[in-house]
Description:
Layout: E1 2-9, E2 15-21, H1 26-38, E3 49-55, E4 58-62, H2 72-81, E5 83-85
Antiparallel strand pairs: 1-2, 1-3, 2-5, 3-4
Amino acid sequence: MNIKLLRTGGLIPVKKSAEIETNLTDVQLERLIKFLKSAPEPPRFKDGTNYILTAGDIVAHIDPDKVPEEFKTLLDQLKRELKFIK
């Protein structure tokens, strides 16, 4: 499955994006989608950084600190791959 992370905002507002192909098992994918569907939208702060995670056709604003432990490695990998976009 293709997973995409979009990072926006910050003190100097910029957009960064990363996309990777994962080999999640059906069970892991089901848990990721369940998390994305139930993830409460994090509070927005002036000059704050926002993260949007997309898995298939599911899109959710996430708080990186509240991602389930089993997906932290995936999120860290996406964060390392972030590149500037216009």
